[in-house]
From TrEMBL:
Reactions accelerated catalytically: (S)-lactate + NAD(+) = pyruvate + NADH + H(+)
Designated gene of the protein: ldh
Alphabetized GO MF terms: L-lactate dehydrogenase (NAD+) activity
Protein name, UniProt field: L-lactate dehydrogenase
Biological processes, Gene Ontology terms: glycolytic process; lactate metabolic process
Organism: Jonesia denitrificans (strain ATCC 14870 / DSM 20603 / BCRC 15368 / CIP 55.134 / JCM 11481 / NBRC 15587 / NCTC 10816 / Prevot 55134)
Length: 332
């Protein structure tokens, strides 16, 4: 069942066929619907397709979005409870999964979400075999690893949204602490999208100045080691605080997802900390973790070997071991 305006036969015949960019978003929940809204508002794609097994929900979301098309860049939004709505998509963002409850870790979500991925991924591959696949649903690193094994797709074509959102959270806090524009802060959260993630302090900069050398006002740095630990804790725990207060995170992750969409569709070769299967990255292999990577039309084509201190390398290995043990519990 499709939910989209149907032009008359004569009008349809008069329109020339043309190839346009298409993003399909799987899941019309808080994250999926907000990501569709963000992609439409930013003009990320010419066609935004929502797919959800809840026909009433996806129909309502599509109508609500379509009623605001006048105020957005030129685009169309379609939706259905039939996977056919995703046919020939250039990029597929998978947001469907079990909802995270207050106090529940991302790892607790793994069993139900992996079961769902096993069911829907082959269907998506049938209608969009050449799409770039981005796993967004949590626990994203374990889900991404499972999706790679289930689909047989190359790691360039399927990856996870990783710590793109977490890095945005980190940059927001650092900008606030240092009284600078967030756009001038360059810093990454890496590792698991979850409790074992950590910031790369050794390579972070503000306006080209190494963050560890940032002078602050009157030469007094606001970023002591103790304060950096507090900032890292604030970033890691932020999702839990948002979920406790409003039930879900959706705005920032929607925007982060639209940024990944644009990097792919516009072939930007943008450096983003997405979650991909690592192969001998500082000695880490056979696990999906987030590190700064190059994202473009062919997916995630390169992982950058950014400088890491000994302690950061150790934390990356610890994060990898934590996720590897979880994946093994589910037979991967």
């Amino acid at each position: 069942m499709y939910f989209e305006p149907q032009p008359s036969d004569s009008l349809q015949a008069a329109r020339p066929e043309r190839r346009t960019s298409k993003v399909a978003i799987v899941g019309a929940g808080a994250v999926g619907a907000t990501m569709a809204y963000a992609a439409l508002m930013r003009g990320s794609a010419r066609t935004v397709a929502l797919y959800d097994i809840n026909a009433a929900k996806v129909k309502a979301e599509v109508l609500d979005l379509a009623h605001g098309i006048q105020f957005m860049p030129m685009a169309e939004v379609i939706g259905s409870d039939d996977v056919e709505v995703c046919r020939d998509a250039d990029i597929i963002m998978v947001t469907a999964g079990a909802k995270q409850k207050p106090g529940q870790t991302r790892i607790d979500l793994a069993a139900a979400t992996i079961g769902l991925i096993k069911k829907i991924l082959p269907q998506l591959q049938d209608v969009a075999p050449n799409a770039v696949y981005v796993m967004v649903t949590n626990p994203v690193d374990v889900v991404t690893y499972a999706a790679l094994k289930v689909s047989g797709l190359p790691r360039e074509q399927l990856f996870g949204s990783g710590t793109v959102l977490d890095s945005s959270r980190l940059r927001y806090v650092l900008a606030r602490e240092c009284s600078v524009a967030v756009q001038n802060v360059h810093a990454y959260m890496v590792g698991e999208h979850g409790d074992s993630e950590f910031p790369l302090w050794s390579s972070a900069t503000i306006g080209g100045v190494p963050l560890l050398e940032w002078p602050g006002i009157d030469g007094l740095s606001p970023l002591s080691e103790a304060r950096r630990e507090q900032i890292a804790d604030e970033v890691v725990s932020s999702a839990y605080r948002i979920i406790e207060g409003k039930g879900a995170t959706n705005y920032a992750v929607g925007l982060a997802g639209s940024r990944i969409i644009e990097a792919v569709l516009n072939d930007e070769h943008r450096v983003l900390p997405v979650s991909t299967e690592l192969r001998d990255y500082y000695g880490v292999s056979d696990v999906c973790l987030s590190v700064p990577s190059v994202v473009g039309r062919n997916g995630c084509t390169e992982r950058l070997l950014v400088p890491m201190s000994d302690s950061e390398q150790r934390r990356l290995r610890d994060s990898a071991q934590s996720l590897r043990s979880v994946a093994q519990q589910f037979g991967f």
